[in-house]
Amino acid sequence: MSDETLNGAAPADNAQNAGPAFTVEKLYVKDVSFEVPGAPAVFGEAGQPQLQMNLQQSVQRLNDQAYEVVLGITLTCAIGEKTIYLAEVKQAGVFGLVGFDAQTTDVLLGTQCPNVLYPYARQLVSDLVQAGGFPPFLLQPINFEALYAESLRQRQAQAQAGGLSGTEVAGNA
């Protein structure tokens, strides 16, 4: 009944009064690549395979309430100096963040968003490796909160180092 008297204004008011909101708007694969440079000869290679995983994350603000977060995983399997396979996945999502202060937004983008994306990226890497003719491989869970905390410490150290350099330059001028 109140919707009728406000001519539809109530839902917008309720959204504003609801407080902060974190939403997953869209999940998608942004880029994927799988290479077996020495196939089919690599299937007969003897030796202990060594796996190296690199993790990257990028954030792009789309508008006042939406961010694109891309979680990149590169998995390289090698025996000695020979690359057996290389899997690269960029799992992405658009996330809505409304009503959060800047610090909380940064924490959510650095922890919760990759926590949402990682299971999808992990499954895609596993499927690629198996489809490439190799034994199933499952990436272990990642503690994004610990990675974010380390990233925050590094940013603070760089800011302090930058602040000292700025003071020295100002003092010399």
Automatic annotation (TrEMBL):
PANTHER family: PROTEIN-EXPORT PROTEIN SECB (PTHR36918:SF1), PTHR36918
Family of the protein in this entry: Belongs to the SecB family.
Organism: Vulcaniibacterium thermophilum
Function: One of the proteins required for the normal export of preproteins out of the cell cytoplasm. It is a molecular chaperone that binds to a subset of precursor proteins, maintaining them in a translocation-competent state. It also specifically binds to its receptor SecA.
Assembly and binders: Homotetramer, a dimer of dimers. One homotetramer interacts with 1 SecA dimer.
Keywords, alphabetical: Chaperone, Cytoplasm, Protein transport, Translocation, Transport
Protein location: Cytoplasm
InterPro entries in the record: SecB, SecB-like_sf
One of the GO biological process terms: protein folding
The keyword GTP-binding is annotated on this UniProt entry: no
Any one GO molecular function term: unfolded protein binding
Main location (coarse class): cytoplasm
Residues in the signal sequence: none
Keyword Lyase belongs to the record: no
GO (cellular component) term, any one: cytoplasm
Pfam families registered for this protein in UniProt: SecB (PF02556)
Protein known as: Protein-export protein SecB
